[in-house]
Amino acid sequence: MRSRTVLGVLIVVVLLFPLYWMVNASFQPSGALLRPSPELFPFSGTLSGYRQALASQGPHLVSSLIVALGTVVVSLAIAMPAAYALAQLRMRARPAVVFALLIVQMIPGIVMANSLYAVFSSLGLIDSYVGLVLADATATVPFAVLVLRAFMLAIPKELTEAARVEGAGYWRTFTAIIVPLSRNAMITAGLFSFLFAWADFLFAVTLTTGQSFQPVTVGIYRFVGNNTADWNSVLATAVLASIPAAILLVLAQRYVVAGMTSGAVKD
After folding, report:
1. Of 6, 118, 178, 263, which has the most beta carbons under 10 Å away?
2. Do 247 and 44 contact (CB within 8 A), yes or no?
3. CB 61 within 8 A of CB 127
């Protein structure tokens, strides 16, 4: 028991140390980071990095938030009915569709990004929120469908059959029974969709030029290229970009655990 406790403490320290160092460095002046022995605690800290980060990266944070929330909405709007059809309805092509969803997730992102660029360029969706949301959704929808389908397979068919006997159609059964019961799985799929879109760099750098807007991942990339000596601002931007994801993970932790394990065992 004691060895397990020590091992757990070591794992927590190893995982949290990079995060602590990032936060610590964000409060220190840029010159302090170049010293042979930088301070472990920023007693003489400064908020200049955060002021500069908010001034230069604030609009990019808002852009990432819009794209991430839009991706969640599109992903759930497509994945929920698709998962319901694959889990509860009789479909001859169900195994082939599930296999296709698995294959889609194996396609390298750079291949999808280049293909989408050619399509979106002809449709005028380059440098647009709609284009970036749709691009991110191509990666999040298959995963969301598989997660939601695994949960919906565990929903007793007697519930849906009883609704059908009472005269409810497929859509009424879906909205009145399946959706309320799938709350935990929906939160899980939505959270992973948000995190993917929030941290996405490949689609963002391929489908945006920075003329109208750019997500925070691309903003940090270009900010580092222009301010290689201003590391406290760079790390302050990284800290600010990590806050929304950290808050969502803390708030949705119990729902995610329930959503990932509810479909693990089928009665």
Report:
1. 178
2. no
3. no
